[in-house]
């Protein structure tokens, strides 16, 4: 969807109309400095949290072998899309919304209108893919899961579809030089029989919001009923209980992510649908403040996910502690199994080696020693007390040591 603030008639459907309607060069949307300062602090803070948080999420998953799962690969794609839209679009969009003047040229105007739709599409369909994977894993556990190769192919397909959907925004983007300022707008073609612009925006809203949310809603409703409707059987093994609790936590985290996305983006989509059908409503002075608030809420969805991961997932929490808390205890990191691939390989080698050896620990047992000494011949008077042997974790077993030959 067109992320550019079109509060005046300067956003007409062609450059001639844009020039004609804004021939006086007057910009009615100039704000006082204190308002611009407050909005700037709000937007810059949100961008900083979003970019840093999502970059750390990407690092946690890619740098730690135990985190490289199908679900987490889609989380990497989600984090990349959100970090990119925050870094490359949010601040520029804020500057244009505040001044209603475009400073960045035609090339970035096209990118600015094109990339947000692609990024939002990639974000929400990454969440949809996660919901589908959770559904198959819990409702149909015997069916084959996605492999890492298929997951990468799915991510590539998602981005190809996203770029295809956003291409009209790139193709029809243009800039117009008006008296006193430049504007970036989309020069939609005019047809007598059909309004291409309205059809496009309605389709985009359905494809990047309502349809995937309906799919995820159905999937998580079914999964939630399966996981939470029945109590854990009393005679279940401890392993089964832990698995069920882990599945509930994972699904709960993703439900919070999806609900947060839905709440943040709903006002944004309603705003632009209304703008297509009731453009006269958007010529009042208050609409600029409304747009800045709605856009901040929508863009802020990119900074909530890292916070949600930290609060609801112990491994992500350990990863953030590794980055931001250098004094985090090593024991906690090991317990959360958040180790580098090299460390995991080393530990696995040590573990395999330990299973091939017998760990011998000597314990002194006077009573057993006296009993064995009485049973042995006199040449065993110099023998050692019995030893306790633990082999392959099977429990201790006690054997007397072989008597030594008396020295000559």
TrEMBL record:
Pfam families, per the entry: 7tm_1
Region (Disordered): 365-408
TM stretches of this protein: 36-62, 74-99, 111-132, 153-172, 199-229, 250-270, 290-312
GO molecular function annotation: substance P receptor activity
Cellular compartments annotated: Cell membrane
Native organism: Channa argus (Northern snakehead)
SUPFAM superfamilies the record matches: Family A G protein-coupled receptor-like
Protein name, UniProt field: Substance-P receptor
Major subcellular location class: membrane
Keywords: Cell membrane, Disulfide bond, G-protein coupled receptor, Glycoprotein, Lipoprotein, Membrane, Palmitate, Receptor, Transducer, Transmembrane, Transmembrane helix
Similarity comment text for this entry: Belongs to the G-protein coupled receptor 1 family.
Gene3D superfamilies, per the entry: Rhodopsin 7-helix transmembrane proteins
UniProt domain G-protein coupled receptors family 1 profile: residue ranges: 53-309
